[in-house]
Structure formats: C-alpha cells, structure tokens
Amino acid sequence: MTTGFQGSLLDGLEGEGPGALGSSVVRTELAHGAWLDLRRGWVSGADALFERLREVVPWRAERREMYDRVVDVPRLLSFYDEGDPSPDPVLADVHRALDEHYEPELGEPFRTVGMCLYRDGRDSVAWHGDTVGRGSTHDTAVAILSLGAPRALLLRPRGGGAVLRHELGHGDLVVMGGSCQRTWEHAVPKTARPVGPRISVQHRLRGVR
Ligand SMILES: O=C(O)CCC(=O)C(=O)O
Ligand SMILES: [Fe+2]
Known about the structure:
This is Alpha-ketoglutarate-dependent dioxygenase AlkB. This protein has helices at 46-56, 89-106, 180-183, and strands at 17-18, 26-29, 34-39, 43-44, 60-66, 69-80, 112-118, 125-128, 140-148, 151-157, 164-168, 172-178, 184-188, 198-204. The protein has a single domain (25-204), classed as Sandwich (Jelly Rolls). The chain contains three helices and 14 strands. The longest helix is centred in the middle third of the chain and has 18 residues, at 89-106. The protein is 16% helix and 40% strand. The protein is globular, with a radius of gyration of 16 Å.
C-alpha cells in the first residue's frame, strides 16, 4: 500500500466513479436555515483517484498575511476555474453527477472546483465560512468530496452553540447548503493522531469562494 491510509478492500470492485445520489443522501436541517447533506462512500475507486490527483494536480503552497506576519497556509491548494478542464475523468463524472442531483434545487450548476491537500495531521483549515462573494449575503451550496485519510469536519453556529463533528474520507460526499456559509462556520482541525494525507474537492457556485 502506497497511499499511507487504509483503503477499503471492496473499493473499486464496482468500477470507479460516483454511485447513486437520490435517496442515499441524508439531509440534516441545521439551525438558522442551514442544511448538511451526507452521502458516505459515494465514489468508488477513491484510492486510485486519490493517487492520480496527488500526482497530476498542480498543488501550490500559499502564504497569507495574519495580523502582522506572513504565515504558511497549512495545506496545499489548487483551483480550477469555470471552464478549466478537469484534471481527471472521474472528477468530471463527479461534477456531472452533482449537477444532475443538485441543479434542480439550486437553480444553477456548480462552476468551480477548489482542492486542498492535507499532507498530515499538522495540515488544517481554521474556522471560517466560504463568504467571499455571494456566500456572505445569499444562500449557496458547497459540495465536498473527501478522498484519502479520514479527517474531522467540524461545524458550529456563528452565534455559538454545540460543535457538530463528521469524520470524512474515502469517497464521502458532504454538501453544506442554505445559509450554512454565513450562519455557520466550518473547520478541519489539526490532529496529533498519525494520519495519512487527505484531499478535499470543493464544488462551488459562480461567484462564491
Ligand atoms: O477540506 C475540507 O473538507 C474543507 C475545506 C474548506 O472548508 C475550504 O476550502 O473552504
Ligand atoms: Fe470552507
């Protein structure tokens, strides 16, 4: 095994790609008009897809200003803008399947694909909402495919309240919808546990980052 995480033995037997969505998607209504959809094990062949993306995606390290210092962003990033070709045919299928399921509800397709590579437990994303652009004022949706080692996605209401925790990995789909980006925050915290790498693939609507 070269992936550094424990892949499922069954993974890939049914062929690679997204499975059904439909009634296999479990929606949880959250407070303040937010909702969260979860579809475990949505993409089969997730190990192979993970390996290909790790190879072919042009991962970038970024530095950001934090208060009076410039710090390393603790994860690698890549961004595919509207119209950019997908780096992998399975990801193109994923995008199509998301649109088939969600466009009737959202009234528009997913347009951009952001990717994060969490190299190990020291990589993370701090509490935030995806509020650059429309997400700060309008309902939106962010659909995230998780590949590789499971990591916790945390959610908390902005006004304070209990933290929700979902371990995501290995082909799981999570979709944050409704007011989630402006009324809740999410994070992938660092962990001291020895964990392998994880890739998250975030699909967003036009004008949302
Ligand atoms: O890696 C994830 O699942 C979340 C990433 C995220 O929140 C973001 O890039 O805005
Ligand atoms: Fe985010």
